[in-house]
Amino acid sequence: MASPQTRPLRVAVVNDCDIVLTGVATMLADHRDRVVVVELDSRMTVSADVDIVLCDSFGFIEGEGIDLPDLVREHNGKVVVYSWVRDQEAIARAMAHGAAGFVSKGLPALQLVEALEAVHRGEAVTSDPGDDRDPRGGADHPGRSAGLTPREAEVLALIAKGMSNEEIAATAFLSINTIKTHIRNTYAKINVTRRPQAVVWALQNGFVPITHREPNP
To answer: What is the pTM of this model?
Structure first.
């Protein structure tokens, strides 16, 4: 059942990959009576008057692009992190930095809408990220057409940003052996054998960070 709010929530989606931004907006489009995406921002601060800033963590590195504390400081809307991360320390750190919620990319669209509505009501919302499988009808991500799981795509995004395996493991809160497994599986799916080839493939297939703002009233 829809919440009793008198108008749809106004949401801005923030990430540095176009396909991620449009994927989230598309997923929420069927629920525009409850949530309206009014701004898609790539490496830019939010300018519109919105209720929720949904920060998609795909390939996100704190200190690069727009940091979570910056989003919280610079906007009156409540900031919600949208992530595959399972680590409770990461969730606690995001909440300590001012996030009003930390929600799983494993949530179906309707449950994501309900979580955003709960945040808007003043509830501190966190959810179990589940697993790496695509939620049915979930948001798109770069490399999906090549068969990459969300986690594999995220690892490839970090490779494309020049990170070492150790740095990726620390960022993704995974063991180095797990990262190596993801890399092997990713290389097989995109038909490359070396890191430079993987970077080239990534840059040619939607992993290029682009700075722009696209309003979607």
So the answer is: 0.69
